[in-house]
Write a structure and sequence with these properties.
4% strand, mainly alpha, single chain, 13 helices, three-stranded antiparallel beta sheet
Length: 383
């Protein structure tokens, strides 16, 4: 967390001056704001890490988190509070403070799903309780995200929470049913949206679509980002010497990894990706050391959320995935993304500090009994 946040602050200080001057009229404004966001996020992470994890799984706390997530997604459409930008209503502004509720809704979704399907008393054979109930909850959040619209966050939410349902022991036939329904809905949505259809065909091949203004902008971002990575080569052009920061519109947010690659080269981008990989391994190790099934699922979901988001962002920047506005956790500019990422890390630290990782058992210690069928993080699902 510290390494990635530090990389983000250095990158924004180095390449954010152009966007800062364009938006705020001051070259250091974005860096100072991000520094303040980092301070807020660290305080929140420390407070969460020092709180007993069982507190977050009280029924009233989980229901409050669910209610706040839904209200936040609704608030982006309220006149005077909601803020629209580039055709998307994703922000809420109260006075000088702006918040992107979707970033925190994704964490709330993990908490609610972990609390529900991690219940040892839950009958995993029951379609209504084990599959339909969490699917309905996720459907409410996806509808809120698609109303903004935010297709990238919707996809990530379904992917991570779907994996939680899978490892929790929900029957595979139930998950396959919902996956097919989600795939059909996604296909119909994309088929009726020429802009998004062109993004898919541009990556995976297929018929050429008309080069509209939005599609041209996506292509320009990708081409410029790839050119920046190529210009950086192995060691980069040096901090502050970026050329493409003057042309790339999202250089400080979605395409911050390309700017890191230009100024510091592969010597910086590759270690960043390795840090995300190490964070995933650490998160999985923390999850395996948590005896409570609900908290175990939550830890796994947080690790997947952070690291899959990083992988998707890297895929977008390198052209391996369709262009979509997903920030790079800890690194991209944005208060909501940074604070939410640090909050997720705070939850993981709190779980790690109160549960010793499993490093093996003593020879004189009796072997634990095999887990019952359907235990979370065990091969307990059935077809």
């Amino acid at each position: 967390m510290a390494i990635l946040t530090g990389v983000g602050l250095v990158a924004i200080a180095s390449v954010g001056d152009v966007q800062s001057a364009r938006i705020h009229g001051a070259g250091a404004r974005l860096f100072l704001l991000q520094l303040g966001f980092a301070g807020v996020g660290l305080v929140a992470a420390a407070a969460i890490a020092r709180t007993n994890p069982s507190f977050w799984f009280r029924r009233e706390v989980v229901l409050a988190a669910a209610a706040l997530a839904v209200l936040g997604l609704l608030a982006v459409h309220l006149p005077g509070i909601g803020v629209a930008n580039k055709g998307s209503a994703r922000w809420v502004r109260i006075g000088p403070v702006g918040v992107q509720p979707s970033e925190f809704a994704k964490i709330a979704s993990l908490l609610v799903v972990s609390w529900w399907v991690g219940d040892p008393a839950l009958d995993k054979k029951s379609f209504v309780r084990s599959a339909l109930a969490p699917a309905a909850w996720l459907g409410v959040l996806v509808l809120g995200l698609m109303a903004e619209p935010d297709l990238g966050s919707s996809f990530m939410l379904l992917a991570v929470d779907g994996l939680l349902l899978f490892v929790s022991g929900v029957r595979l036939r139930y998950l396959a049913l919902f996956a097919c329904a989600a795939g059909i809905a996604f296909g119909l949505y994309v088929a009726h949206d020429p802009e998004r259809l062109s993004r898919i065909t541009s990556v995976f091949g297929g018929a050429k679509t008309e080069r509209t203004a939005e599609r041209a902008d996506d292509a320009f971002q990708l081409e410029t980002g790839l050119a920046a990575l190529a210009a950086g080569g192995a060691t980069g052009v040096g901090l502050g010497n970026s050329l493409y920061k003057h042309y790339l519109p999202e250089s400080h947010t979605d395409f911050i990894l390309a700017m890191v690659g230009e100024e510091a080269g592969l010597a910086a981008t590759l270690p960043c990706l390795l840090v995300f990989f190490a964070m995933a391994l650490a998160g999985f190790r923390i999850a395996m050391g948590v005896p409570d099934p609900r908290q175990r699922l939550f830890a796994l979901g947080l690790a997947l959320h952070l690291c899959l988001s990083g992988a998707v962002n890297a895929g977008v920047v390198t052209g391996a995935l369709p262009t979509k506005g997903l920030a790079l956790p800890f690194v991209s500019y944005g208060g909501s993304n940074l604070v939410a990422s640090l909050v997720a890390g705070g939850f993981l630290l709190g779980l790690a500090w109160r549960n010793k990782p499993r490093t093996g058992r003593l020879e004189d210690e009796p072997a634990p009994p095999p887990p019952p069928r359907g235990t979370p993080l065990s091969v307990g699902w059935g077809i």
